[in-house]
Amino acid sequence: MLEKWQNVHHRKNLDQMLAHLPIIDREHLNECGIDEDLFRELSAIYIEQTPAIIVDIKNQMNVGKTDCLRKLAHNLKGTSANLGAARMAELSRMIERSTAADSPLELRHLITCLDKEFQETAFVMQNLKQPTDGIAA
């Protein structure tokens, strides 16, 4: 029962921390000169490859290989940031930091949240007509 309450409490705090960030950062895309065609191409690759990375992150957590997990989170952070996926980048940064802080409960919670955040990010990416349409959500 306590663990369930802690998970709900952690999720609320995490939601609040991520809420100020856009799912896709329009300003970043504009600053980088990422046009509609390039965004569509890069986001398709991101959507295709990220689920396997998330599975690898979960597997590394389950076997206790935090060094590998940290590297995977670091790479996902960079890829997400480059595509303007601000919430995914921040969540990946938090996972990377949690491996260094040796916080297994927090780490497990963050990794669980990664799936949900990726689904939301992928949905926005797939339904974006132009990189600047509806990105502030």
Structural Rg: 15 Å
What shape does the CA trace take?
globular
Low-confidence stretches: 1-9, 133-137
Mean pLDDT across the residues is: 85
Q: How would you explain this protein's 3D organization?
A:
- This protein has helices at residues 2-19, 26-32, 36-63, 66-82, 86-101, 104-126.
- With 137 residues, the protein is mainly α.
- It has a domain at 36-126: Up-down Bundle (Four Helix Bundle (Hemerythrin (Met), subunit A)).
- Helix 4 packs antiparallel against helix 5.
Task: Please tag this protein with its features.
single chain, 137 residues, mainly alpha, Four Helix Bundle (Hemerythrin (Met), subunit A), 80% helix, disordered C terminus
Topology, pairings included?
Layout: H1 2-19, H2 26-32, H3 36-63, H4 66-82, H5 86-101, H6 104-126
Helix pairs in contact: 1-6, 3-4, 3-6, 4-5, 5-6
